[in-house]
Amino acid sequence: MEEKLNKIKSDLIKELDGASKEADVLNVKSNYVGKKSEIQEILASLKDMSVEDKRKYGSLINNTKKELEELINKKLEELENKVNVTFDDTLNYDVNVGSLHPVTVVAKEVTDILKRMGFTVVSGPEMESEYYNFEALNIPKDHPARDMQDTYYLDNGMLLRTQTSDNQIHAMENYGAPLRICAPGRTFRNEDLDANHENTFFQIEGMVIDKGVSIENLMYVMQCVLSEVFKSDIKVRLRPGFFPFTEPSYEMDISCVICGGKGCPTCKNAGWIELIGCGMVHPNVLRAGGIDPDIYTGFAFGIGLTRLAMMKYKINDIRYLNSGDIRYLKQFNI
Ligand code: DAH
Prior knowledge:
The chain has helices at about 1-20, 20-35, 40-45, 50-80, 100-115, 130-135, 145-150, 165-175, 215-230, 285-290, 305-310, 320-325, 325-330; strands spanning about 120, 125-130, 160, 180-190, 200-210, 235-240, 245-255, 270-280, 295-305. By secondary structure, the chain is α+β, with helices and mostly antiparallel strands. It folds into two domains: about 1-80; about 100-330, 2-Layer Sandwich (BirA Bifunctional Protein, domain 2). A hairpin with a 4-residue loop joins strand 6 (about 235-240) and strand 7 (about 245-255). Helix 1 runs antiparallel to helix 2 (about 20-35), helix 3 (about 40-45) runs antiparallel to helix 4 and helix 5 (about 100-115) packs across helix 11. The two termini are about 75 Å apart. Bound molecules: 3,4-dihydroxyphenylalanine. 3,4-dihydroxyphenylalanine (DAH) binds near residues 246 and 279.
């Protein structure tokens, strides 16, 4: 009898192994534990057995039947949990994967460096009001600085921001002091196009406001950013600048990597490329942001990300970067 029961069990296991669909398992179920199955016959034969055999085999037969049912139910559960995903591999997939744009790469590098120094990344609108782009930044109407940034004015009375410095005001309004933010973004100027000028380019703005913030802090941050981005010796010069929203103001130029500083169309024969504007935040700007300049000081900077990408990857014409020409962009393979 034991042999017979073991045989039924091992036959069932084999059949379940071969079953891959629910319908197959249900078929097996009816054959092995259904009304006309062998185990049911054996169970029925119990009543004709001697008392001794009944005692000997009764529980064995019942337990075997239970085991058979358990095996079947387990298999049914397994099939239920199995999700069948089939791929249509007759489709022609385009295996031509893209690459990151050089400006995207440097933007990420700079924000990563600044984040490690405790800066929070924020963003602001590309369509901006005159107030945030100019007035609150200490550039009133008729101020000559407005002419330096040829502005696209829109029919709805707004403008396309000419600089990411508008984020300074938004950030002060939103978070107050102390503050440590950076804001990468796209900016627009109605420029004549040449190798070094485009009407659409990227900048990253930075602003730190706290008690006792100084020019040394600003220079340290700029040095960290540039040395980490270039990871090699580069020549940078610091010169006095003029921005209405900072006092004092500085400009940082990088020795042109295209010509090694000798002069070329990219640097307009100057040997240097303007990369960063920065300085100590003007008290009027702090006030516009609702911060008391008698308590807090701050520094701010704006880095030209498009130019940074050009210098890092030795791209001699800014227009390539905006062309969207995959063949050009792909060669950087970054
Ligand atoms: N917004 C300036 C520009 O686009 C650059 C700049 C200068 C940003 C000085 C600053 C700053 O934050 O302090 O030319």
